[in-house]
Amino acid sequence: MTATGEARVEDRPEPHGTRRAGLTAGLVATVIALTAIAPLATDMYVPAFPAVAADLSATATQVQLTLTTFFVGMALGQLIGGPVSDQRGRRRPLIAAILLMSAASIVCALAPSTGVMMAARFVQGFTGGWAMVVGRAVIVDLATGARLVRVLNLVAGIGGIAPVLGPLLGAVILQLSGWRTSFWAVAAMGVAMTAAVVIAVPESLPPERRHRGGLRAFAVAGRQVLGRRRYVGYLLVSGSAMGALFAYVATSAFILQSMNGMSPIAYSLDFAANAAGMTVAALIAARLAGRVATHRVILTGQIAALGAGVAMLAGALWFGTPLLLAVLCFFVLMTAQGLIGPNGGALASAEVPEHPGTGSAVLGFVQWVAAGVIAPIAGLGGEHTAVPMALLMIGGAGLSMLGLLVLARPSTTG
């Protein structure tokens, strides 16, 4: 074992035989698409908020609640989908979830009111989260050690293109058609993903490795997963990264456009550049897996994020948040998330190999709860201050370091 204790996770020998054989390029590509489709369902829709409010005679708050119900559904779908797939297997629950997500998207496209939209968005988020967590569990079934870290970073890195394409695609759809078209597009993607799963995703959890179902079994598995100190540490690492990401999503438009006069086009380009930075960082982290201790890669990202938060706070308190400083701090923050989030999630999964579905479910639940809670908190200060965002950047980096350096520290024995 190395001095950092990483050997326990990263240097574990790869299993041979059936587990490794099923991890094909087509399977990884399908999981990447499954990871991207739910964020696309949100990002394509956000530019149309004013049009939705006008069409459905709704207030801005009511339209915003359709986003909140989606996040709640995402969190619950991941929490429940993982354990169910541990009991029933991966393939059939995954196909059912994607088909239901497509149906919910059609209901959204036809929704006559915000009430119907909220209910359909909840189902869309629930089934999208279910599909995401089961797809991730398939990867965990078929890879371990450095290979697991590498593949999950690849999934996160390429899947990170969704936040770039989503708003741009939504804006184009809104320009050429109406907001309902974006939901028809998501429904069509769901049908395509169903076909991809049928073709490329095998049943990765044979009957002899499945757990008996029921609430009692779920509670036992949950206690076992949350009883792992290092798992909880990596959970905090990854959840804090997700919170910081959605704090940025919630406030960056106000800070850059309302406070600094950046044009919508320039903002879209900056948003894309930051997402690209996060994607490149995740891909670099994938290349480093097995060569550089993942613990060290995460810590590098945390230090960068903390520095960006401190700089942003200083700029907000004493210099009126100048544009160049805000742009640089956001770029550093988002790039750092590419080093922190995927690696934290991969190491969390590696800590609970006997309950991959439950481990992935709890991880996804924590991430999307963090997203849903942090996003509105980031906007509490209004449109003309960056102080709440800066404090969230600092707090997120601090909590992430606590998870890595204290809770996920290597055991002194062994």
Structure explained in plain terms:
This protein is mainly alpha-helical. The chain has helices at 7-10, 18-21, 25-43, 49-55, 60-88, 91-110, 114-142, 145-159, 162-176, 180-200, 215-226, 229-258, 264-288, 294-318, 323-351, 356-378, 387-407. It has one domain: Growth Hormone, Chain: A (Up-down Bundle). It is 79% helix and 0% strand. The longest helix is centred in the middle third of the chain and has 30 residues, at 229-258. It is globular, with a radius of gyration of 21 Å. The N and C termini lie close together (8 Å).
Series of secondary-structure elements, N-terminal to C-terminal: HHHHHHHHHHHHHHHHH
Classified by CATH, the class is: Mainly Alpha
Helix tally equals 17
SS elements, strand count: 0
- Which of globular, elongated, flat, extended, rod-shaped describes the shape? globular
CATH topological fold name: Growth Hormone, Chain: A
Total separate domains? 1
User: Low-confidence segments, ≥5 residues, pLDDT <50?
Assistant: 1-21
